[in-house]
Amino acid sequence: MKKYPELKPTRYDALVVAAVLLLAAALGAYQWRGARADALTVVVRADGAELERFPLGETERRYTSNGVTLTVAATAEGVCVAQSDCPTRDCVRTGTISRAGQSIVCLPARIVVTLEGARGADFDAIAG
Amino acid sequence: MRKRIVLILLCLLLAGCGEQTAAEPVRRTVFAMDTVMNLAAYGDGAADALDAAEAELYRLDALLARGSEGSAVYAYNHGGGTDAELAALLDEAEEIAAATDGAFDPYLGAVLDLWGFGSGAGEHRVPTEAELAAAPRLLDLGGVAKGLSGEYVRDILEAYHVTGAVIDLGGDVALLGAKPDGATWRVAVKDPVDGGAYLGVLATAGGVYAATSGVYERYFEENGVRYHHILDPKTGYPAASGVVSATVVCESGVWADALATACCVLGADASLDLRARLADTAAFDLILVTEDGDVYYTCDGFTPETGNGYTYEKIS
């Protein structure tokens, strides 16, 4: 019967092991980046198209669309439209949103500010 | 060496296995009927289906816009008669008016204009009794426009073999089919007073429409008094029934939309009586919020939010 050759680990084997471990670590880091349960992202869209998205945190940003300029103000807790030169200012009256899936709409500007969660929305829709 | 290369490649393949991500729907945002509409559809025909749905929403907006000279409603109000589509909708609206003893009235156009709530965007003011008495009956289908749209969009999506969809028309939600993983739809119901909070979550199968009417949606203040847009057809004044908001869940979008308005006019007891009366002809579920902080609900799938100061009561 043919004798199987003895297996002696060589440096090429070590290379393979290192490559796999490195790849696994890199992929793991990529998969689990920013997966804190409370990581919320503010997404600002005009006419359905995304203008900007940023992590929820202390910031103020101004957007102009369809002749209306509004200011989005965010803190670590939530986001609101602080100011708007639209006629009815319903967007300002909406107040602060703080949960994934909620949104503030300025109809004249056709701007929608939405909070998106790291693991997707808790609900399929919000009625009311 | 070749074996080692193969081994490395195999390992890379394995490393590529990540977590299974849920199927993502195709989404579309439409601005129509003076509101923002968010559509999400699952299924192979989803993108084409949403194109068709978007076009339909603009068509319906043009058809029903009372102030727009080319619309069927404008024509009706100016002696132009009706086309078949409008006639069918009118029949249904009048059926609902009769079923609700006039609490829902599709002919409040002129009265809404007097208050500044009409499509003509007049100034907000309190009309006199004489003005209210003299107001002609003008067709205004704003109270069923979104409900009708929800039905039409649902039909279109079905025709394109969409397997599941969320049709959010300015907060009125129509649900079609099922999610790809078969899980129940979850619809959060907004707190009418605190827009950032929820009353609770409704778990439901598809094929229903959840319409909400509330006194805080549109109102103005004059001399310290708040006047909202849900008028009591009998008085011409904003309804003062004690109901702050009503969410109606029904298979018919038109009925859900109209009944939500009617329940705000009727008040809690009369709304529940209405529900009992319509159990065999137009069954619906209800989530009513009163100004006293009570929430009466009939939906089996509704889970109240806790710790928000409301008192919940499930009614069978």
Tell me about the largest β-sheet of chain B.
9 strands, mixed
Query: N-to-C SSE series of chain A?
Result: HEEEEEHEEE
Strand content of chain B: 25-35%
Radius of gyration of chain B: 23 Å
Helix % of chain A is 10-25%
Number of helices of chain B: 9
Mean pLDDT figure of chain B: 93
Cα shape of chain B: globular
Q: Over all CA atoms, what is the radius of gyration of chain A?
A: 24 Å
Order of helices and strands of chain B: HEEHHHHHHEEEEEEEEHHEEEE
Most extensive chain contact?
Answer: A-B, 33 and 45 residues
The geometry of chain A reads as rod-shaped
How does the helix and strand content of chain A classify structurally?
alpha+beta
Distance between the termini of chain B: 74 Å
The largest sheet of chain A, given as strand count, sense and whether it forms a barrel, is: 4 strands, antiparallel
Strand numbers in spatial order across the main sheet of chain B: 1-2-3-4-7-10-11-12-14
Strand content of chain A: 35-45%
Observed structural traits:
heterodimer, A: 128 residues, alpha+beta, four-stranded antiparallel β-sheet, three-stranded antiparallel β-sheet, 20% helix, B: 316 residues, nine-stranded mixed β-sheet, 9 helices, 14 strands, 35% helix, globular
